[in-house]
Specification:
Elements (H helix, E strand, L loop, with lengths): L7 H9 L8 H22 L1 H10 L15 E2 L2 H4 L10 E6 L10 E5 H19 L4 E5 L12 E3 H9 L3 E6 L1 E3 L5 E3 L1 H11 L3 E7 H14 L8 E7 L2 H6 L4 H11 L7 E6 L7 E3 L6 E2 L4 E6 L12 E8 L10 E12 L9 E8 L4 E3 L2 E3 L7
Parallel strand pairs: 1-16, 2-5, 4-6, 4-9, 9-10, 10-11
Antiparallel strand pairs: 2-3, 7-8, 11-12, 13-17, 14-15, 15-16, 16-17, 18-19
Length: 377
Amino acid sequence: MKTNAFNYRDEIDKIITSCQYNLLNKDKSKLLLSILREELKYATDNNPHIRSYFDKLGIKISDIRLLKDIPFIPVQIFKEFDLLTCKKEDVVRVIRSSGTTNQVPSKIPLNKATSLRQMKALIATLKFYLGNKRRPFLVIDTEDVNKANFTDLTARGAAIQGLSSFAKRTYFLLKKYSSGELILDTDLIKEILDQLKNEEIYVFGFTFIIWSIFYPQINSASINLNFKSVKLFHSGGWKRLKSQSVSKEIFNQKISEIFCTDKGNIIDFYGMAEQTGVIFLDCEYQNKHVPDFAEVIIRNPLTLEECKIDEIGLIEVLSVLSDSYYSQGVLTEDLGILKGIDDCPCGRKGKYFQFISRVEKAEIRGCGDTFATKVQL
């Protein structure tokens, strides 16, 4: 009796449990394509919206030969359509993207298998920066953001929970007044400095919260956070900072001074709620690298054709992590530039790129921005 030698779910597990950034782009593309085609079959079999989309585009999955030919969906579609590809009763958590009060947030349904893959993928990525050692985790946010119902979580809370995988103990450095104002918990910070000064720690916060709330308050209090070593990860809010003429260089310099560490330990990353588990962290050359279980395609904003190296375009993120919703190709509202393939001086293989900005006319939405896009599925 013949058996199918290629089990794509087993292949996904192999990729996300392997050391990341090791695959040459040509080898990675071949492997991801074989997995993604199987996932596309699963998605079209289980969601009528996705099946209708493929039918209207005249797409035959068996004819897809390149990653760039995989049908992508605009990120706004998560606000308007049900993209569930598993049974409703199998959904264990729904992630909701940040949004303004007038916006409908994206809803990303996760089943147990997808949630577990995303967690393993995040851990595999962060290992390059943190190793396997658990260490104290400082969160530049309030504990309230992590108190939401487990089954219904904001992107902000999901990011904190994801990064807490390496935590020996977690400390929240901000408090919230009844008015909603966020303030520095100076008593806790003094306690942390006394207890953890000889520890290797890591820190996470959203870029805008770090700069607009944490930095001015801790600077005013003349507190320096001096530990044995520190890695600070941050993401989101660059549009607001750039409107204040705050560059990445200025941000890294000022925050590194507060933490008494080298600027190279202030690490920006790019990610999105709709692709939970996939993050792109800066290397020492300020390039964002693509882990082996995902891919990035930069597309011309006018033609949507794939851009060449050093051409600015819209960022598309492909991922093999989900079988509970459509994650196989998501076109963002962000601009980026592909800087190279397999040849970054840091030694990581695969594509590497730089985030440029949100698209113009984008509306600020918490830690992200969006512009209206209508696509008929």
